[in-house]
Amino acid sequence: MGDHIFFPSFADDGLDFSEPSGSGPSYFQEKRQHILDPTITALDAEGVASQSQEPDVQTTNQSFSCPYRKRNPWMFNVRDHHICATHPFPTITLLKRHIVSKHQSRDFVFPCNNCGIPFRADLDRQLHQESGLCFGSRTCYPDEYDSGITDDMHRRLRDRGARNGVSDWSTLWMTIFPESDHIPSSEFVPVVEAHETWCHFFQRLREHSRSMSAEAMMQEARVHLQVLINQGQNFLAALGSTIRWIGCLISNVTQRSRMGRPHWLDEALLFSMSNTGD
Q1: Per-residue pLDDT reduced to its tens digit, 118-169
Q2: Domain residues of the chain, as ranges?
Q3: Residues 6+ apart with CB under 8 A from 104
Q4: Tens-place pLDDT, residues 233-255
Q5: Residue 14 — left, alpha, or beta (φ > 0 → left; ψ -120 to 50 → alpha)?
Q6: Residue 257, SS3?
Q7: What is d(CA 240, CA 201) in angstroms, rounded to the nearest whole number?
Q8: What are phi and psi of 147, to 5 degrees?
Q9: Which of helix, strand or coil describes residue 173?
Q10: pTM, two decimal places
Q11: Vertex 27, ends 23 and 28: CA angle to 5°?
């Protein structure tokens, strides 16, 4: 079964939020560095003990995304799964602990009546359905793997043996999504709100406008103005042809009606018009 992965990455969608070379990190790069502050981790947010008996195999400055958020961000959104959407995990050990704590299939027993997304509590389902943000027609419907890990997956994640242990992103992904045909990047992508995107867009637009000379802007305006003038001339020409056609049609109808009228009717019409004029 193929994945319905939807990557919330701007580069893949053709949007370039990067700054020109030499101008320093972009707004979103700075935001990502801020979110990856080691003092702000999902471990602290979940209230789990900071000490682990299992050694970490990652020693580089790497952050891991919640794999369920990476696979189906529509379901694991900021409103319904805040930790999954907003917190990176510095090690595989902490990521596995998050999965065991927050993603067990036996806990998600309250599916939404509209879109099918499962929830842990009936209250969470009610809040989701009353939020006005639940849509029945979507491209990413939840499947059996979105509900969380099974007991067998749970045992595999807790296995610390060298042969069957889960110590890297690829193994972790295939353990919880065994029918997956693609393993995405493990990089955590911070949530970008709409107003932040618009502010950044208009900032780049202002910078682009300043870089254009007045002569170049006038030349571009003249090109667009000429297009509008040509369209207006074509419209007036078509309107004139239509008016002439209507005039000919009315004239023909009038002539035919006169030919079919008796002589005394024309005299009566003339007499009526003359009396009206007096």
Answers
A1: 888 889 888 888 877 676 655 556 678 888 899 999 999 988 776 778 999 9
A2: 11-210, 219-277
A3: 148, 149, 154
A4: 888 888 888 888 887 877 776 77
A5: left
A6: helix
A7: 45
A8: -70, -20
A9: helix
A10: 0.51
A11: 125
